[in-house]
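Tutorial, part two.
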Amino acid sequence: MVEISLKEERLPGSIQVQQLQESFVLELIREDWLSTEQARTRLRQLKLSQLAAEGLRLRFAAAELKLPPEELSPASRRRQHAAGMNFQLACRETAAGWKHIYPFASDANPLQLFFLIPAKEGPEHADRAGRFMEELGQRLSTCLEYECTIIAGVELKGLKRLKNAFASCLCALGRGSLPEARQGEDSRAASAMTWLPPDEERRLLHLIGTADTFAFGQELDALFGPGRQEALLSGFQLYQGLRILLLLAVTAGKFAFRGSALSKYVWNSHSTLAACITAPELKEQLSALGLLVMEEVKLARQSPERALAEAVRRYIERNYGWEIQSAVAARIFGMEEDSLLRHFKQHVGMQPADYAVKIRMGRAEQLLPDVSLKLSDLALLVGYDSPGHFVSAFKKYSGRSPKEYRERLLRNRR
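Running the prediction step on this input gives:
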């Protein structure tokens, strides 16, 4: 593995590099990880070493632009877009003034922006997230005409708890707009945000990914079932529901062979869950979402094999920077390896490993015009720990070395 120091954290001003970094932070939430160590490797490749450190403590903050109802109509779409652009710009400019605060957004909701905030040692960094949120609030109040909500989840330790930390942020975002009777501090919530350890997450992902509706219903019954009709939904129960929602979003994205509409719908459903008053109401919403996702899984599995092959192709396209072995891809999608290879070759015209190289080379061609990027850094960004391996792969793909390709581009610009 290539060692990358924290001094190398920020590459010279490449917007494309920032987009790669932001995209990967989002994918850490929305994708089924191969392993924590591979996630750390990819973070180092993307110059996000702060997030790959052992003993990482992190939390998420969220900002949401609250447009009045009349501005949310289709007739006001242009004003919505302009307001969202101004909101995102102000948020990103504020975050740019803080070292190691990483903003990211989902295309599912342009009126929300999230921030991954790793903790830093030293008294000068005390309440770093709180001070950032205060500055952001002041900035948004002066440059926007609409109200904004800014809130943070709990701080957790370890990269493997990243999704738990994000679910706690969604929980805080949802409860921030709830009636006073439900805003009381739940004593269990902060200490229990480690619910759903990796092994249990893997088990639940498997039953959703195999469309086991009966087992999924049993899980919901155990968490939110009978005997709880009278009690108001607790913060911990909402957190559990949102954590399950993230599993549904992961599966919806994984099997989205027909487009991203379902994935966006599931992702945006956190506000619907937050509006639930009782545990059975939350269970009903999760059950309906689960059925939608598992119907998509069934459709992918029962359709001609090209549907699953297309889902695998999209997965590789989103995660080209990972080292995805065909056996691992087969396990993720619940397929036999031979079957995956055969159907993928029929659908795409090449094997999964070759397709991953093609995507990497395409990304390299997009980055090569940026002369501020060293070729050794570019190799890391597209998923190669060894610059030599990158040069060999690129020359085999394009017929030129990366250096020759860049020089030719520069000559053609003159």
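Residues 179-302 form one domain. In part three we will examine how such features are distributed along the chain.
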